[in-house]
Design goal:
Elements: E1 7-13, H1 21-32, E2 39-43, H2 45-54, H3 59-65, E3 76-77, E4 85-86, H4 88-97, E5 110-116, E6 121-125, H5 131-137, E7 147-149, E8 152-156, E9 172-178, H6 192-205, E10 217-219, H7 235-255
Parallel strand pairs: 1-2, 1-9, 2-5, 9-10
Antiparallel strand pairs: 3-4, 5-6, 5-8, 7-8
Amino acid sequence: MGKQKKYKTGIVLSGGGAKGFAHLGALKALEEHSIFPDVISGVSAGAIVGAFYADGFSVEEIYKLFTQKKLFKYFEIAKPNSGLMKITGLAGVLKENLKAQVFEELKLPLFICAADLNNGNEVFFSSGGILKPVLASATIPILFKPIIINENLFVDGGLLNNLPIEPIYYDCEKLIGIHVNPIGYHEGFNSLIKMAERCMHLSIANNVYHKIELFDLFIEPRELINFGSFDFSKARKIYDIGYEAANKALRKYHKL
């Protein structure tokens, strides 16, 4: 017999901006099938969802938290030489609502992936303060000002790893991956932001799809191809797409 794993079920949550609302729908579907994670690894939007979920917030509570005020209130303009916007509003939401201040206080073990600009590598945070790693993981380069942690500059971990299975891969009996940033045909690049968003999506796609076979259950809502990272006004639709995609994947999984 092989060595018993540390956790029964591990869940990996990808980045995707507003498409992260699909994580909530998928988590709700998993709950309805009595599937709950024992450990979470997340990046960018997945880091935000993962932090609140690991802190004991319900799916409904997280959804309400990020739909009760307009997107622009989460950001403010910064100096052009450091990034177009600061994530001061998001920092406020995290500070005001997370009950845990450090990883060790969370109800579930959590790993957060961020990209170290100075050293050019991914870093997984799982101890110490929560706020800066989550903010760093969600900091889209160029658009947002980098986050300083231990004197180094950090940005969105999805740049190097948008499906961070590595820190929990060997410790889980079952692994579930939720990828909300599918790649497919797209048009309408009528702004620099949309062009930059598309280029980043294409650049990070290669660090995702070779990992699919590592998961026992892989959930990817293909309909999200038609949504952008800043489509926060479509949160309910995105949530529903995640819910339906998870249910579809679960039905197929149970037939195996």
